Amino acid sequence: MDKRWRILPHDAEQVAILERAAGVSPVVAQLLLCRGVSDPSCARVFLEAKLNTLRDPEQLPGLADAADRIHAAVRAERRIVIYGDYDADGMTGAAILFRCLKMLGADVGYYIPSRLEDGYGLHDDALRRLVERGASLVISVDCGITSWGPAETARQLGLELIVTDHHQMGPELPAAAAVVHPALPGGNYPFAGLCGAGVAFKLAWALCQRASQAKRVSPAMRELLLAAMGLAAVGTVADVVPLVDENRVLVRHGLVSLRQRPVPGVAALMKITGLDQKPALGGEDIAFTLAPRLNAAGRLGQALLGVELLATDTEDRAASLAEYLDQLNSSRDSLERSVYQAAFKQAREQFDPHGDSALVLDGVDWHPGVIGIVAGRLAERFHRPVVLITWDRVGAKPGIGSCRSAGGLDLYRALLQCEEHLLSQGGHRQAAGLKLERANLDAFRAAFCEHAAEEIAPQDRIAEIRIDAEATFSQLTPGTLAEIERMAPFGQGNPRPVICASGVRLAAPPQRMGQGERHLSLRLKHHGCTLRGVAFGRGEAAEEIAQIEGALDVAFRPVINDYRGRRSVEVHLIDWRPSCAPVVAAR
User: The whole model's pTM is what?
Assistant: First the structure.
């Protein structure tokens, strides 16, 4: 699929003003301006990301009441159960509260629903089982904000329920004893972007303050909270929430905590993946190494073990769990590749890139734990909303679908428009899930694609690459990249800068690399400077790029590759094209 390249505007005068006023390099000044940061004081706050800029947890809507109730339950020795979610955000959030309450001497346990058997959110049967096992107070983490029925069930059971969540709210709140949410109606919290683990961290902080009977917590609790910040960083990056405001602070300092004071489970994961050998961790290490292993446990129905990994203080148990999650991730990777190949083949055979507004693909025995990942990869590849539906081989069960957005389509609204064809649906703008009968597939596909055609303008069906600057390879020195790293941590809302270069030539034939030859490795030469280039997940493009005659324009993210202590500049390719194609200046 062709992409539209847009170079962001470069005002030399504004760059110079911000450079002087904020005391930054021209490179950083230009990147800050590209991200809409032009005020010098805001630039300093952004770059410094000081720990003391985290807001007092009492400001978070609903948190004070929740903390009071939980603290009272601890003192009364009531049985507390943390009800988490099966993704990395839910796991880390549950582990944060579990570790905190254990330190406070609580009678506490945790419960995680199965993605494959239970599905997302609070469930009536689970709450009944928890009550039978002696639970008196249940705290949801990363779920529950739309669980009106289960909240009523909890009330009827005499179970005190506290909901902590960050997801999109429905028309009414659940009738829980307390609800904690950054965007709670009537609240005035200035940042609604916290993830579930971020909310859990704030709650743990408030509980430690109550236990210390002071704003300044005891030294032991301070160590607990600093370690918890590392878990919150994992949840924040894994949940792809914007790395701005408090999220930026949590991840910046959480990455340091992951290196200096990791919980045993994270230390074991870092050892088994080699991250313990890196001098410093970045957001990408969470996104591409730690989070996938936690998410693999959830996707393959083993989320409870993921929480145990993060909750245990026994090093031997942590090591064995880390090894098992690493194996699960390999299994997940194999399943994902199999489903991707089948879905991609179906898309290539059925998809009209000029006429179709969305893709609705289906297959038998596609593993329900990986269809969401594959839908996301296809949505990025074709720049269309994608729905992947899997059917069981017998055909007796409804199909399970996972959706990922592109082109600005609001999936939550889109599925509501198609609900007459569905058994159930839920999610948010960018990602959603559904269930349907096979007899309704064609009607659903037609309704979904029709809605997408109405909502996505023709120009939004072309993927756009926003480019921060144009540069020569010789300008990409280690010193320049060190300046760029001042903008870290990178991720959603603060992406690693994208650079373009024109007139680039291949210095050697393209090579495929990695397991299954999934990735592309290149040697690229530009005005006498040669750099290694990598295009992840694009191994199949080796022949295509080898056949391009003449020079290339390339769009990429420059990085420092630290391999066995040897540091070198390399470029991670996003797109390429023959050098005759125009680049559009953004307005």
Answer: 0.91
